[in-house]
Structure formats: C-alpha cells, structure tokens
Amino acid sequence: MPSVQGRNLPHRTRQIGDPPICHPERNHKALGLCNACHHKALDAKIPLADRRRRDRDKARRLRAAKPEQYRATRKAWVQANREHVAAEQRAWRIAHPGARLNAYAAYAARKYGLPVLKISNQKLDALVQQACYRCGIEPAKGIDHLIPFSAGGLHVLENVRPCCLDCNRKKNDLLAVAS
Ligand SMILES: [Zn+2]
Ligand SMILES: [Zn+2]
Q1: Would you say residue 160 lies in a domain?
Q2: What is the CATH classification number for the domain harbouring 162?
Q3: How far apart are CA 141 and CA 165, in angstroms?
Q4: pLDDT tens digit string along 8-50?
C-alpha cells in the first residue's frame, strides 16, 4: 500500500476512472482509496491526543448503548493486537504499583484473618514515589506496614510508609528472628 500523506491526498491529481491506488480487492471511493485507507488518511491530520479522546468516547458510547457489540469488538481487537495490549499492561503496572500493593495486602490480610481493606490506588502510587522511611532512598518503590499483618496490623494509610525492598526484607528478617 502506498503511504498516504494527509497533505497529499490523491484526489488533488486523480482523474475519474483512474485505477485504485490501495487495496484493489476492496471497494473504492472515487478518490482511489478504499474506505479504511481513506479514513486513515483523514485521521492522520487530527492530533494524536484528539484522536485518542475521540476513539475513547466512541468506545464508551458503544459500551453503554450496545454492550454485546462492544465486547465482541473489543475481544477481536485484543486478539489482533496481543503484543500491543501486553506492552500496555506492563507499562500500566509499572506506572500504577498501587493496584498490585492493594492486591498483595488483601492476600496477606486474608492469610492472617484480618479485615480486607483498600487504600486508593492513586494514594499508593504517590506514596511509593516518596523516600524510603528507613534508608531515605528515593523513590522507595514499595511500602511497609509499620505494624505487620502478622501482628494484626491493618492495611490503612496510617499504618503504611514508603519503604524500599531491601529495608522491607531486613525488617522482615528481624521480625522472623524476634518471633
Ligand atoms: Zn486501502
Ligand atoms: Zn530503604
């Protein structure tokens, strides 16, 4: 398929009856581009952020109006873009550690028969950016529960501090020796 620059749309020079310039197997507009390529060329003129917002809004409307169709479309898209989706999920998990920390806290709370509590993902995301409360390394990238789950500590904001992995391990080792 020839690359289509938004600025040089073929209709400026094309004559009616000229052969199609992209996917000859598809139906063509008079301009010589199939529907998909035609819209792609038009899309390229819209700033990326605006395009994303438009697509998101469109998906949201579809999900509200026709949930079945939304699920089918979404599933087909995910299947056709597996690597892209996996890369996005990896990036999201790295940028949003709060979700993982909440999941771990829920697991630990259940293990010790404590109430399963949640701190907002956003608050945890911000917290792990702060300096480790033990060694000062920044960003701490993790949290520590001041009173550990094993001692009945709860997963509430007052009981968590930003803490790096090394300090967390050292503290756990001390606790293991003490108990
Ligand atoms: Zn085409
Ligand atoms: Zn530390």
Answers
A1: yes
A2: 3.30.40.220
A3: 8
A4: 555 556 777 777 788 878 877 767 788 888 888 888 999 999 9
